[in-house]
User: Fold these one by one.
Assistant:
Number 1:
Amino acid sequence: MKTMNCGCGCSRTDLPWEGRGTKLDISGCRFSLYPMTNDFVSVILGALEKTDTSAVWSQSDALSTVYRGKLSYVADAVRGIFVHAWRSDVHMALEGQFSKGCPGDTDGDSLLGREEPLPNMPGIKDKHFPVLCKLALYPMSTENYIDEIAKVWRMAEEAGLNPVSIHYATRICGDVHAVFDYLESVCRLMEQSVPHYILHFTLSVNSPTNEE
Amino acid sequence: MKTMNCGCGCSRTDLPWEGRGTKLDISGCRFSLYPMTNDFVSVILGALEKTDTSAVWSQSDALSTVYRGKLSYVADAVRGIFVHAWRSDVHMALEGQFSKGCPGDTDGDSLLGREEPLPNMPGIKDKHFPVLCKLALYPMSTENYIDEIAKVWRMAEEAGLNPVSIHYATRICGDVHAVFDYLESVCRLMEQSVPHYILHFTLSVNSPTNEE
């Protein structure tokens, strides 16, 4: 059968896509780490080694890595790899997309049985550094997507993340944990509000660009 | 007035967002270049210097750059900077999002009077190198977004870009110009098909990861 991709764009195996989708509680995050250094391989591999991915389903290719499972564990693993990859003297970006509810998703490629505490948080919660972030939220299958965005903007204000509008995205900034807490809370709100969402985000640390 | 951001997420200056939007032919691309080398600043600045941005409205911050104007010129400028930034020995990624039609967009921050030939194409059309690409398309304000995706998938097949489905995205690969031609043709189809779309894409060159 032909494997196709939906706009969001998860796996589909038929055309048209009928009878697909999952009722399981599967969230996912596809992300890429970009350390702007000659040592980018060791930065990435070192971070991977320190990150506990036992609570998520994981797959990597030349472009990115995807974690799938319960949202709290997916978010914990992405936060873990980002904090572990951080170096005080390296400009680095992480590009990612959280998503849940694609009508073409499947029950497979996930890990949902985990019940234990978050495996990465204890090792990273005391590391703090400032993060610049841009994000763009896409609530799908709803005409009122603007209303959902409004809620999320207010959440950023309430979290003290100083949201600023830029064309095609919103910028926020704050401590790494405040930013990750916010991204996860946006996902929580979306999974209660819309059948399908995608939250694209980019994190940046140690940028040499001075902004006034 | 408070500046806010829609999901897609362009600028809004009121809440709720009424009476906004533009009927002008403004497409945009927000993107970031990530050269994985100690020389990342000179790679980026060198590429900026060689790229003719006279046909687009442009703005940069610490996270990304945005070009706005007629689609052909926006796409020409992004292609220009990517080709100019390419070095045979540097692993580099470009993360971007093409978009048009956000209901909260404005008439401003654009350049639409240009009629001349594409300014960057003559200087880059004979440079060729293979590119890996992942993309995710979000046709907004339509319930049938899956149908739009199906068309776009077939276009990738017809263009010989070997589309492969991965969770939350589609992968394609090909010569840099074939990939950019395809991205632009997806935008052309979307602007005829839906009132508002966003096309997220990531380009990668010279990855050290071997895939079987």
Number 2:
Amino acid sequence: MPSPATDRRLVILTEGHSGPITAKTANSVLRYQPEQVLALLDSTKAGKTAQEVMDVGGQTPVVASLDDVPDANTLMIGIAPAGGQIPQAWRAVILAAISRGMDVVSGLHQFLSDDAQFSDAAARSGSKLVDVRKNDEQDVAAFQGFREDCLRIHTVGQDCCVGKMLVAIELTRAMQQAGHDCKFVATGQTGILIEGDGSPIDCVVSDFISGAVEKQILENENHDILFVEGQGSLSHPRYSGVTLGLLHGCQPQGLILCYELGRTTVHGMGHVPLKPLAELCELYESMANLMGPSQVIGIAMNSRAATAEQAEAERQRVSEELGLPVCDVLRHGPEDLIDAVCQLKPQLALG
Amino acid sequence: MPSPATDRRLVILTEGHSGPITAKTANSVLRYQPEQVLALLDSTKAGKTAQEVMDVGGQTPVVASLDDVPDANTLMIGIAPAGGQIPQAWRAVILAAISRGMDVVSGLHQFLSDDAQFSDAAARSGSKLVDVRKNDEQDVAAFQGFREDCLRIHTVGQDCCVGKMLVAIELTRAMQQAGHDCKFVATGQTGILIEGDGSPIDCVVSDFISGAVEKQILENENHDILFVEGQGSLSHPRYSGVTLGLLHGCQPQGLILCYELGRTTVHGMGHVPLKPLAELCELYESMANLMGPSQVIGIAMNSRAATAEQAEAERQRVSEELGLPVCDVLRHGPEDLIDAVCQLKPQLALG
């Protein structure tokens, strides 16, 4: 697991993949650790700003070559594609960074440190290869119960790439600022890069998913509230197993269902229609309640691609349909969801 | 993946763990490949027969030492405990087998071939170390659909260790004998040892569970009927993620729910009550139907610990409660479940 690494001066590699969803690791690091990012590396977009190509990151430049950023000490792989393999075309850039003595940080399934060419080069240059997803989890869940006063809120999804991590981080930060004792529990490579700890549960051997999550909760249940990052969806043809193992491992009392306005098919699988939100609320509650009392307390809408008017209309429609608070935490602020969290644990409203 | 290895002359190591459930790998190999087994190795039960300590295996002897079975050429690890670690006390026996040049076959999560002491010894003696669970699955599911005429029947469970593999094998063999074109699709280490192929899905990296299963189906969908071995349970606090990833990966049209008569708590977790069968039927159908039409077509009861009278009363009670055929495939034969399979695909009844 990487340390928070506050001395990192990053170039983020997004070559040919720049964009808010295609390069979601880059997007989130730009949002939550902008002070670390010197540049994006994408020769197809060189000369633009991060804001222009990623919708976040302000004036951070997009450059064509490592030569343009001599002060950088770390190359970060900025994408997390399905399957998590290293694009063949990126190998030369990674090797160039290693030969300069730069560290390389990756959240891919294909580990840099298992690649003989990369690890030989790193041994010569003294570079560190950091594979955020690499883990050795081998503990099954004990299911002995968590501290009763620790409220666990879990962001779950209609799909992947809808903002489950972002919502968990935004709620954590907003409630911390209001004086609550909260922690964000990261369960994916980007969340771990931002928080500095967590467990990459989509890369854990499948018998140990729930055990790995349980361990994260036990380590952090001294806090009053945990916001546990969700993964995938119970209805995702690829990742539903990860989603359920995570749901059962953290036994959340409260669920926040996340979705993107206007999306109709599974991300990257245009032949698979998404399930309706009402059906998903029922499904998540049924599955969560197998392990302990749990309810959906609110809906987090990602309205990135919508106008203010469209977002407002959708917010009202969904709220009326489901009888739940609905908001886009970036557009509307997280207050409605924070109220829902506080209602679940009345004493917190005072604190 | 091991070959069927018909020249194997096995000693199965069950030291201190002999018993039909504690040594479930040994139990199943004794049941389905008795011709390969020369002896069980358990010094605490030496002098008895396999039948006496395992409820299966007839006159196969239980011995105290490898010296008692000079003809054996392979040591097989006969247990599959939660977590899958090698009992410390077994290391000496495994090393002794390796030093004799015997191959060692293991289905544990802790790989023999990753252990420096074992692999060094094997390199010296020429022994083969076969880790059945070792895999390199890195493909996500494509979910492009299966051959329409391939009927997929999936054995699912109220719990682990209730007989999901056994039911799938018994149904496959009975229907093969009746002339149907069937195959057993193994998804766990013991099933793979018996069938000679399959995927150890509880040891696959969790993002790739459904993809690994899908690959098994695509490789075998030329058959008319596949019986896909289930794992764990949707309500199992440790393994539900594996169960759901498997369920969604094979998209079964028919489900057979397996349980053990008299069991009230999760195997090995006495503090966790089991969920009622009726609730589980609904849950499995809800989750399976996310990917395609699917229904529970019958109940497989494991009545190992019951009298004939108790088993008959339970069979009637459950059948009336759920409106489904119920049988113990070993005690009553598999006919009722075969009828249910044939009803799901009427044209098969003729063939």
